[in-house]
Specification:
Elements (H helix, E strand, L loop, with lengths): L1 H6 L11 E5 L2 E4 L3 H12 L4 H16 L1 H4 L14 H24 L3 H20 L8 H11 L31 H4 L21 H23 L2 H7 L4
Antiparallel strand pairs: 1-2
Length: about 240
């Protein structure tokens, strides 16, 4: 488990692969940042394109359906009057719930549903990094936070960790909160100025750093899943046959 945490210490933003158009009730998925990060990883692991699309469908559902967009706990955001740690714990519960559902479907030999819920779990895990000051923290703090988030030992608080404030009603009013999503989220280099800040001592922006480490987190998460499964269960999940 410790090896998985070490492998996973960083991650990307969510800029979400959204939907470019909708036909009836069937949205057409964009080939966007998230998909560009995820596809090379699952492809190298031997996942079929169909399995990748199913993961992506679950992932983007959080940013497409109104009921999900408004729930901060599905995006690692923080609502008004909620502390950073309480918000983080809420997001962790959602993440672990979706991961548990995915495993349940794997054990029941329902790969399509399992992949969908893996996508939903990944969405929250990925937002943990982009909707916070995660990449501004030192590596040790990141490891501890990710370890806790993935189901590790309980903690009482992470005093240096902050989640962005999200409220659809006040969203472009940055004065509603000093650490507002509209300014500090690191998931869109064309939208949030914070993304374009160059990290001291490097030539990378915060957006670049998040992007460059996204594939490591995705790979680490999937390797952790692989270690929990029997070889046959893992291979079936790839939908190659």
């Amino acid at each position: 488990m410790k090896q998985v945490f070490l492998f996973i210490f960083l991650f990307l933003p969510n800029t979400l692969f959204g939907f470019s158009s909708v036909t009836g009730n069937q949205p057409r998925l964009n080939w966007d940042i998230h998909s560009k990060i995820t596809h090379p990883v699952v492809d190298k692991m031997g996942f079929s394109y169909i399995s990748f699309r199913q993961i992506l469908t679950g992932n983007v559902s959080h940013d497409y359906y109104p009921a999900m967009v408004k729930k901060a706990g599905l995006h690692c955001d923080r609502n008004r009057g909620v502390s950073n740690f309480v918000a983080l714990t809420d997001c962790r519960k959602s993440f672990l719930r979706f991961k548990k559902k995915a495993l349940s479907f794997i054990y029941r030999n329902n790969q399509m549903s399992a992949l969908f819920y893996l996508g939903k779990a990944l969405h929250i895990l990925q937002d943990l990094v982009s909707h916070s000051n995660f990449i501004d923290l030192n590596k040790n703090d990141r490891l501890i936070i990710v370890g806790y988030f993935l189901g590790g030992p309980k903690h009482k608080n992470f005093p240096n960790f902050k989640l962005t404030f999200w409220d659809p009603v006040t969203i472009p009013n940055e004065k509603a909160d000093r650490y507002h999503h509209a300014k500090y989220a690191k998931d869109s280099s064309s939208f949030n100025k914070e993304c374009r800040h160059i990290i001291k001592g490097t030539k990378q922006s915060k957006f670049d750093l998040a992007f460059s480490t996204a594939q490591d987190l995705t790979k680490g998460f999937l390797l952790g899943l692989k270690n929990k499964l029997k070889s046959k269960q893992w291979e079936k999940l790839k939908l190659r046959n």
